[in-house]
Amino acid sequence: MSKSCKGLAMELVKCLSETDCVKVEKRSFKECCGEKSPLISSECVGLRETYFNCKRGQVDMRARIRGNKGY
């Protein structure tokens, strides 16, 4: 279960590395991930929300019994 969000995390990093926030402004992934600016594409925002829900599912007791929805 600890690796069920790994695929999403890798895609999120890949998506963020292609944005202007990282390329042009030379900011860290952590700073850019928290942004809601137009520098981040809607695809990255969607991946961020999906990753958040995946991580939240890991601590949800109902999801722990059923298993986290893998990627």
TrEMBL record:
Superkingdom per UniProt: Eukaryota
Protein's UniProt keywords contain Disulfide bond: yes
Alphabetized Pfam families for the sequence: Pet191_N (PF10203)
Keywords: Disulfide bond
Record PANTHER family: CYTOCHROME C OXIDASE ASSEMBLY FACTOR 5
Family: Belongs to the PET191 family.
Record protein name field: Cytochrome c oxidase assembly factor 5
Organism: Vitis vinifera
